[in-house]
Amino acid sequence: MDSDRNRWIQAIKDDNLAWNHISDLKGWGNTVGKQYGIMSIPANVLLDPDGKIIAQNLKGEELMKKLEELLGPPVISRKIKAKTTK
Q: Which of 2, 10, 57, 60 is the most exposed place for a label (fewest CB within 10 A)?
């Protein structure tokens, strides 16, 4: 939802956000926001491999449960469980 390129890049650096970032810098008028009905931030949209929305705007425990359902338990949890079962 950014519109100022310099402020957007500085925020990425300031917050140490290590993943890839994409913005059309059209603010609230951006194409993807309109496509997925994003009306506020933070927001999240989980897509399947075909781009179909499978969940939207999950937070906290609900988000963690959905991610675990889709991806399996977090790697750190697997390591802890392996150590405690030995």
A: 60
Query: Using one digit for the tens of pLDDT, what is the confidence trace for 56-77?
Result: 999 999 999 999 999 898 887 5
- pTM exceeding 0.85: no
Residue 10 belongs to a domain: yes
Cα 51–Cα 57–Cα 62 angle in degrees, nearest 5: 105
Half-sphere exposure of residue 77, counting CA atoms within 13 Å on the CB side? 6
Q: What is the DSSP letter of 52?
A: -
Q: How many domains does the chain have?
A: 1
Q: How far, CA to CA in Å, does 41 sit from each of 27, 28, 44, 48, 72?
A: 12, 10, 8, 21, 27
Q: Residue 13 is part of which domain span?
A: 1-43
